[in-house]
Design goal:
It is built from ten helices and no strands. By secondary structure, it is an all-alpha fold. The longest helix has 26 residues. The protein is elongated and about 65 Å long. The N terminus is likely disordered.
Length: 227
C-alpha cells in the first residue's frame, strides 16, 4: 500500500497533464468535435477522472483558454525591455509574442481559431486578453509620438486605431508563421527556403511594415486619396 501511494501523481500535476491533452485535442479537432474520451485517453487517465478534476467540457475549455492566455501575456511581458525606447519595447515584445506562439502552436490555435469562434463565454475571455495587449501597444505608440514631439497631432482615437491595426497584423502574421497541415506538422516544412520565419524575423517584418510607416506619420506625413 505504501509503495502504491508513493507513486500517486499529485492532483496539480495530473490536472496539467489533462490540460495539455485538452489543448492538443481542441486545437487539432476543434471544440465541437473534441471529446472527453479523446482527452482522457491522450492524458492517460479515465474519463471519470477528467470530469472529477475539471468538471464539464465547457469548464475544461474555459480553463484551457485562461491558462493559455495567461501564458501568452506572461511571455510578452517578460520579453519587453523595460526602460528602452518605445520602438525597442515593441520589437522585444513582438519577439516574445512570436516565440511563444511558435513554441506553443496548439495553444495559439485554441486562442486564435477555436475560442474566438465559439461565442460566449469563450470569445469574451480571449477578447479580454487581446484588449490588454492593445492597451500595451497603445501606450507605446503614444509614448513614441510624445518622444517625436507630435503627441498633439495624433488624436487618442487615431493612436488606438493604430494599436488595433498593429495587434491584428501580429495575429495574422503569427497564424501564417504557424500554419499547420492536416497531420499537425508545419505547412512550411523545415528545410531551405521553406523554413518558417524565426520570432526575430517575424518581429522585424512587422516593425518594417508598421513602425516605419508610423515614423513617417510622426514626421508629419499623411496619406490622402489622389496623392
Amino acid at each position: 500500500m505504501g509503495a502504491a501511494k508513493s507513486k500517486r501523481v499529485p492532483r496539480a500535476i495530473r490536472e496539467q497533464q489533462m490540460m495539455d491533452a485538452a489543448v492538443r485535442t481542441f486545437a487539432r479537432r476543434g471544440y465541437r468535435a473534441a471529446s472527453m474520451d479523446e482527452i482522457a485517453e491522450l492524458a492517460g487517465v479515465s474519463k471519470p477522472l477528467v470530469y472529477l478534476y475539471l468538471n464539464s467540457k465547457e469548464d475544461l475549455f474555459s480553463a484551457v483558454i485562461r491558462r493559455e492566455s495567461a501564458a501568452l501575456m506572461a511571455a510578452v511581458t517578460a520579453a519587453v525591455e523595460p526602460g528602452a525606447a518605445a520602438d525597442r519595447q515593441l520589437w522585444s515584445g513582438l519577439i516574445g509574442f512570436f516565440a511563444h506562439t511558435a513554441e506553443h502552436p496548439d495553444g495559439w490555435a485554441v486562442l486564435h481559431q477555436q475560442a474566438r469562434t465559439q461565442g460566449e463565454p469563450f470569445a469574451v475571455e480571449v477578447a479580454a486578453t487581446r484588449a490588454e495587449i492593445v492597451r500595451f501597444v497603445t501606450g507605446l505608440i503614444a509614448a513614441a509620438a510624445k518622444e517625436a514631439g507630435c503627441a498633439g497631432e495624433l488624436a487618442d482615437r487615431e493612436v488606438a486605431g493604430l494599436a488595433h491595426a498593429l495587434v491584428g497584423a501580429a495575429e495574422s502574421l503569427a497564424e501564417w508563421a504557424n500554419a499547420r497541415t492536416a497531420d499537425g506538422t508545419s505547412a512550411f516544412g523545415y528545410a531551405g527556403e521553406c523554413a518558417p520565419p524565426t520570432a526575430k524575423e517575424a518581429a522585424t517584418t512587422l516593425m518594417n511594415f508598421a513602425w516605419v510607416g508610423l515614423g513617417r506619420l510622426m514626421a508629419g506625413e499623411r496619406w490622402a486619396a489622389g496623392g
